[in-house]
């Protein structure tokens, strides 16, 4: 196991290095430049001065070298859109995205897996078809539209939930306030992610439902609930966990739109703003953070397999 | 149970104290902005998301009155020397910065000499100032002289256009003002009616009343700007009451807003004009008949109806009707006339080609037309493409993101035609956008060079009174005939706000924000 972990961590570091190289050269060679240097009303002289201030007049390789040296020392540089250190901004934004992503994941798992189980058990029923139709809707409707519609319904028409923003925690943490602000964005994000989980759970379960060992269990007189949860689901769980592992990075990318629509200061919105404004240092930091999260998620999922299915070993 | 009585009583006391205090503080309002602002109007990283907020924090020497003419703000009066090369400004006394320090002439001199006029800093809009202003001298603590290299009659107007004064004492020892993030991003100090109380990156900026404001206690207690980049989300929040005012970028939503009984839609006209620039480095566009033909071919009233839903009027030049003292409509007009467009192109030597595209000397009239996926530029370009196609001109569109567009069109001038807009102060001095010296390197995007126009615009900077008007009328006539840009329209600025907000002057948003101390809530 230790060898496996060491190998995976080593591979992860190589992947991060490659991500940094590819991203750095791609964004720096892409057309356009940082907003300060690409201002509509600036003169050529002003643009040259800004390029110099931002150090963009140095060769690309030199810039990558100084950026990478900084990162190894824990310094991600300063934003090109305001000169602030990138690391604290990233930490703060990552916090919001994790809140949103985890809330959406919990909602997806809590609703998606039971729905998948029920629809598998009642295949071709009205419920199965309804859930199937809803899943198709969730997968095909763009999340920004769902977000705006949710705001119009719950905030504008019914006036029961805030239209956007984070809860004001200046007076201390309040779970109800947090929920009030998080339920709409997390709900919309879950609505978009949920169909994958429902359909996957349903398909995985259907595969094992006809297996001999389940017939045997039923013949032994085991109650149906126990048959499903203890015997069927346990075997169907490996692909479901793999699916959750795939959903996590998707939640990160999904948060890009949701954060913009709901005015949440998260990493997704930071990434979009940085990409549009060619804020190279911020793009690099966000990309590395996202890469790190994906690598870590994959590792955790691989480790989770051993817990779910003792036959899987990482020796 | 008996113990409940004092508890209830004390709760009521607290509640009523709260109500009294709420009335006393004047309430608060919520606005939207699109990104984290930079609290420094001169920073190259301060864009549209920062401009209005900076107006509340950093007043300039002048501000605009209801007719968009310069009125006193931090300066109480001013006059120019006989040769127009020295302007003396008398400053307001007893003005304090929000940290309690006294404001004086040294702050004005610092702002211009150390920030705006320093070439290497490339301050926001700095080239406009360096074009005419050499330095600012302190005469005494309440008087400054602006020393000019060439006459500039518009100086007082420009001093009210996002030209806030910065506190010298806060920048003492700061080597790079753009990296002074404690000031620029968190704790700015200004002389305006509001000061920053809290910044939550990516979420909100809360401004509270500056009790030291020279104009008396502002009526509102707080103004919060929520960071909402998505315009649909802004609209939803206005409808839900979470926002009190938004700037409406999409005219199609106006009817929806008008239907809400608690909202008011306000229309105003600023000095903004949309245009199609034809790159004059391309010999085809150096023929004025071609430029005129391409404008005759565009049905601008129809475009205003479809793109702007009618909220705009056909443009005749860079001086908009809002400049009542200078605007003239007695210039050459270009009503939609495809037949005339074709005739002009034929006179210029273009004949129908085999595939319906006009050609001259065997070369088809194909125009590369980069555009940006930004605001309404793409639909505008598509419509222009269609109109030109009708007269046998082929425009090849390429849609880019905003920064790439700027690099290609503005920096490299790698385009043949492109639609964009200029937003300038309500002042007839448009020299930076038309002067030959600004071709290729400055704001003269079409690289248009005409010594006659250069001379007129230079003269306009020197003239005063009726002579100035006569010069600019002449300039407008020349521009309407010559078409350095193909003028499309003057759009109306649409603002929607909650009826509980009062005290808006209904001029333009930037001018309204200069009088924020007068805002209140019902």
Could you explain the architecture of this structure?
The complex is a heterodimer of chains A (315) and B (522). Chain A is mainly α and 315 residues long. Chain A is built from eleven helices and no strands. Chain A has a domain at 86-151 and 182-308: MetI-like fold. Chain A has helices at residues 2-29, 44-53, 60-72, 86-121, 126-140, 143-157, 175-209, 212-219, 224-261, 267-276, 280-308. Chain B has 522 residues and is α+β, with helices and mostly antiparallel strands. Chain B is 31% helix and 24% strand. In chain B, the strands form seven sheets. In chain B, strands 11, 12, 13, 14, 20 and 21 form a six-stranded antiparallel β-sheet that branches. In chain B, helix 9 packs antiparallel against helix 11 and helix 15 runs antiparallel to helix 16. Chain B is globular and about 75 Å long. Chain B starts with a helix and ends with a strand. Mean pLDDT of chain B is 92; it is low at 1-24. Classes of the chains: A mainly alpha (315), B alpha+beta (522).
Structural class of chain A: mainly alpha
Strand tally of chain A, please?
Answer: 0
Q: Termini of chain B, distance in Å?
A: 40 Å
Which percent bin holds the helix content of chain A?
over 70%
Q: Work out the helicity level of chain B.
A: 25-40%
Write the CATH architecture name of the domain at 86-151 and 182-308 in chain A.
Orthogonal Bundle
Order of helices and strands of chain A: HHHHHHHHHHH
CATH topology of the domain at 272-491 in chain B: Dipeptide-binding Protein, domain 3
Just give the CATH class of the domain at 272-491 in chain B: Alpha Beta
Count of DSSP-assigned helices of chain A = 11
Radius of gyration of chain A from CA coordinates: 24 Å
